[in-house]
Input
Amino acid sequence: MNPKHRLQLPASDAGEGLLSESDLTEADTSAAVIPLRVSQPTKVTFDRGELRLILNLYGRKVAEGEWRDYAIDFLKDMAVFSVFRRTSEMPLYRIVKNPALARRQGAYSVTTTGGLILKRGQDLDRVLAVLDKPLKIVR
Output
C-alpha cells in the first residue's frame, strides 16, 4: 500500500490508526467541494473617522445658525451626508463618498443643490474645507 494513499485517524477510531483509500465507500468519495463566497459589502458607509470629521463641521455650522438638519443615506454604490437649512427643503449640500471614483477623481465630493461639484478629492478633510471657509473681516 502506497503511504500517500493512507488517511490518518485517531488511535481510538481504528486499531492501527491507518485507513487505506480502498476502505472508503463510494459515498465518502463522491462529496462535492462547495467554495465559500467572500461576501461583498452590501452598502457603502462612512467609517468612524469620516463621520467624526463631518459631524464636527456640522456642529460648528449649527452653532453658527447656518445649518439645521441632516440626513445620512447608505446606498449600494455610495454614502451620502445631506445638509439642510430647513427640514422641508432640498439639501443645501451633499457630502458624497463614492469608492468607485477613488482612483480617478477621488472618493469624496461636495455638491450643491443644483448638482454643482464644489470640491472632489482623496482626503475628506481637504474636501470639507470648501464648506468651512474662514471668517472675513468686514470694514
